[in-house]
Amino acid sequence: MSLIEEIEKRKTFGIVSHPDAGKTTLTEKLLLFGGAIQIAGAVKSNKIKKHATSDFMEIERQRGISVATSVMAFEYRDKQINILDTPGHKDFAEDTYRTLTAVDSAIVVIDVAKGVEDQTEKLVEVCRMRKAPMIVFVNKMDREGKDAFSLLDEIELRLKLRVCPLSWPIGMGQRFKGVYNIYEKSLVLFMPHGKQNEDDGTMLFEDLSDPELDKIVGEQLAEELREEVDMIEQVYPKFDKEAYLKGELSPVFFGSAVNNFGVKEMLDCFVDIAPNPLPRETEERSVKPTEKKFTGFVFKIHANMDPKHRDRIAFMRICSGTFERNTNYLHVRQGKKMKFANPTAFMASKKSILEEAFPGDIVGLYDSGNFKIGDTMTEGEELHFKGIPSFSPEQFRYVNNADPMKYKQLEKGLDQLMDEGVAQLFTKKESNRKIIGTVGALQFEVIQYRLEHEYGAKCSYEPLNMYKACWIKWTDAKAFKDFQDRRRNDLATDKDGNLVFMAETAWALKMAQDNHPDIEFFFQNEN
Ligand code: G4P
């Protein structure tokens, strides 16, 4: 197959949701349609149990499984579909944000009873920043929930998505009869725990005024459906693929993942409309997937679970050209050539060594400490892919060495864990003290545990009252000197030596911004 055919075959996306909306269940069902049944059971366990946030075995187990389920590829209707897993737990949101830099589109899962939740809002915001087209799946229609129209209002208002329903529920909860597929003009009848096959319960229904409808779903629901579909046509825009691809219109589907209902309709539509691998921006230029020369970037690093090997797996998204095994490529940041004897594919249920990979694919590279998140690989060109954010952490602690004999191990451990993106390390300018900043509290425990078990080092924490760490930029050297002189105690460097202002309170930040208008403050550092 030619490179263009390979590109046209691929669709790489992520599913985002607030925990418990049904992301895992939906992923599992999608894999079933792709015939990747073996892995489906494993997906289920890829989340930290609700009440086990400080159970380290659970964290370890989750890390183990998530190597296997970080990327799940399957074939469906001659397309290769790559699902990138995004942790739902909010303490791992940063990992999710980074993973979303490697997708071309997203599916947003919403619980019909709970509606739009906090995480949904944040993750949709990230997808919007990346202009990733989104399809919405309203889940759990077998339960009582919000009225479909009010839910769509909520989605438009809180998620700021222009929506266009492509299926419409007939009843809900106990009365749930199925959906009317507006996209294909067909009626799909609900069968609990059904294995929806090609024609199971699906019938073409071009004309809703057909009295046959009353016989099938009952007079009252038939009448409701007619009115509602009428209303949809008046109120919502017609589906427009171009608008969807620009991220300006989101199709909405209704279903029940656990019952495997409404999933196939969405998948079929996804395969029809979701974008193929898209061009990606570097600091230097835009890179098209069809370019002959290979380029890619690392968006995730995972420590290997095997304690005998210190290896890690770097997840690289291929952006252009063909990646080949055992071929020398340039590691741009390090300025050195590297080749990979065992690049891993994540096809269906098993990991396997791949010979070549194409744009949109995710390749696992065994790494002994060469990579960090955001690294670019090319055939020689000095490119730097943009858009992998380091978010301003929200929780801070001083980190101390708790075992003076193991200083080196602590340094190495912290260094590697930061490369993995578990947290961010800042060094205070004045005191040289080290501060760890994280998005969630769970990371502190993860770091302590992993330092001890993987590096033989011990650390202790000291509480620190801190509001935000902001990266700063300036053009006026005098203004910066003035800022530095006055704020010396609040300055630190991040791991790459960039200057960071550590604001103790929101007020302190505001004061700094007001008093130093020539200094720019950033809440995320784009790599
Ligand atoms: P997540 O990955 O988004 O966190 O959600 P997950 O798929 O794990 O689903 C959360 C819970 O919602 C699960 O129940 C799951 O079975 C249930 N669920 C998913 N889809 C549907 C649906 O369409 N209808 C209904 N009624 N429930 C659904 P659980 O009790 O937490 O787990 P389990 O013990 O049932 O597996």
Automatic annotation (TrEMBL):
GO terms for molecular function: GTP binding; GTPase activity; translation release factor activity, codon nonspecific; translation release factor activity, codon specific. The keyword Cytoplasm applies. It holds the Pfam family GTP_EFTU. One of its GO terms (cellular component) is cytosol. This is Peptide chain release factor 3. PANTHER family: PEPTIDE CHAIN RELEASE FACTOR RF3. Keywords: Cytoplasm, GTP-binding, Nucleotide-binding, Protein biosynthesis. It comes from the Bacteria. GO terms for biological process: regulation of translational termination. GTP binds at residues 17-24, 85-89, 139-142. Residues 8-278 form the Tr-type G domain. InterPro entries: EF-G-like_DII, EFG_III/V, G_TR_CS, P-loop_NTPase, PrfC, RF3_C, RF3_dom_3_sf, RF3_GTP-bd. Its main location: cytoplasm. The keyword Manganese does not apply. It comes from Portibacter lacus. The gene is prfC. Belongs to the TRAFAC class translation factor GTPase superfamily. Classic translation factor GTPase family. PrfC subfamily. Increases the formation of ribosomal termination complexes and stimulates activities of RF-1 and RF-2. It binds guanine nucleotides and has strong preference for UGA stop codons. It may interact directly with the ribosome. The stimulation of RF-1 and RF-2 is significantly reduced by GTP and GDP, but not by GMP. Transmembrane segments: none annotated. Signal peptide: none annotated. It is found in: Cytoplasm.
